[in-house]
Give the backbone structure.
Amino acid sequence: MKHYSLADGALSVSAVALGCMRLGGKSPAEADRIIKTAFEHGIQFFDHADIYGGGACEELFGQVLKANPSLRDGMILQSKCGIRNGRYDSSYEHIVASAEGSLARLGVDCLDVLLIHRPDALAEPEEMARAFEKLHRDGKVKHFGVSNHNPDQIELLRRECPFPILFNQLQFSPTNSTMIDRGINVNTAFDGAVDRDGGVLDYCRLHGITIQPWSPFQHGFFGGVFLGDERYAQLNRALEEVADAHGITPTGAVIAWILRHPAKMQPIVGTMNPDRIREIADAANVTISREEWYAIYRSASHTLP
Ligand SMILES: NC(=O)c1ccc[n+]([C@@H]2O[C@H](COP(=O)([O-])OP(=O)(O)OC[C@H]3O[C@@H](n4cnc5c(N)ncnc54)[C@H](OP(=O)(O)O)[C@@H]3O)[C@@H](O)[C@H]2O)c1
């Protein structure tokens, strides 16, 4: 598994991360197997959020860590905060309290990374920066980032924040590729030219912010998995062809497609199936060709001008 060196070498992260949103409801033995399978296959970055399973996902992960304390060595733990019942909350008090809640549930002293989960319309960047400073000063969080933020929102935060914004988690897959479509369709009247994110892909590359694609196998907004879905027959055929050519699976081909983009994105996969985790880890070592990348892109009903 390749790693990316971030924060001037202070942070080394596996190119693929395991998202723990769907860990709730698993037994401790299943959770143990899922986490160890990921770790053994080089996936050492785990993504959480205070709200996943209402806190149950972090708690279960914490149980596994408690039973296997050495797992924490070399593991990168990320959590997110700011989504509450019916509102977003990036206030100083909530950011600090939420991060402390994640630490307690995970049973660790320090989060490697904390992200602001969604842009809060009432956010005060100065307050957010103050919360980051407190958590960092208290040794509770090492690095910071955002999720679902556009460039202007990140700029507002960067103006106040003494720490680099290292990550921006965004939905991205062959079927949800608006941030790429916009660049391909510049100055045309095609739908792909519509600016939905303020140019977040190029912005993140310019500022050394790693994009973490979430839901890399889902179509729509949690519309279901496009793999094996007959509405995406052409995409599935293209993924199978690439998979066959490289000795990986179609699931793996999606990850190889994301990793082929030069932005060095870090997909957050949500499978809780150990076999799929292995398929994904294998695919992270494969570099697909330019022709294969474009064939998958076009097969997801994207046209080139
Ligand atoms: N920042 C945000 O706003 C945000 C939003 C959503 C998610 N996230 C993060 O992103 C992570 C991934 O999200 P996600 O779980 O929606 O993404 P995903 O990896 O696209 O989807 C995983 C789900 O698809 C199922 N699946 C069925 N067939 C599959 C196949 N062939 N290959 C892979 N998965 C298959 C998996 O089931 P099995 O378990 O049975 O394999 C699992 O339920 C989350 O855990 C969370 O950490 C962040």
Notes: The longest helix spans residues 92-106. The chain has a mean pLDDT of 97.
